[in-house]
Each structure stands twice: as C-alpha cells, then as structure tokens.
Automatic annotation (TrEMBL):
The chain crosses the membrane at residues 6-23, 35-55. Keywords: Membrane, Transmembrane, Transmembrane helix. This is Stage iii sporulation protein ac. The lineage of its organism: unclassified sequences, metagenomes, ecological metagenomes.
Length: 64
C-alpha cells in the first residue's frame, strides 16, 4: 500500500475540516454539513476502490 493514498485521504480530511469551519463561521451550517457529507463520500469511494484492488489480488493469489 502506498503512503500516498494515506496522505491523500488525510489531505481531503484537513481541507474539508477547514472549509466546514469557515462555512459555520459564516452562518452556513447546512452547506457545511453537505460539504462534510461530500467529503465522506469521496473518501469512501477511494476506500472501496482500494478494497476492490485487494480482493483482485487475493483472487489472483489463490486462483479463484
């Protein structure tokens, strides 16, 4: 597993957290919640793709 992926996920988390704080300070709580939800969805998509790669490798190792 590349360390790049971990940094990418952490970067997305930090960026979403900062933007969410800015939106909450601007009295836009609904947009902040939607931004947080969008960030979670993006990270989950990345994790699902990684899990797909993992299962592909496991299948090839065990010839399934």
């Amino acid at each position: 597993m590349d360390i790049d992926i971990i940094f990418r996920i952490a970067g997305i988390g930090i960026l979403i957290a900062i933007l969410s704080i800015v939106l909450k300070q601007a009295q836009k709580e609904e947009q902040a919640e939607m931004l947080t939800l969008a960030g979670v969805v993006v990270v989950l998509i990345m994790v699902v793709q990684l899990m797909n790669q993992l299962f592909t490798v496991v299948r090839s190792v065990f010839n399934l």
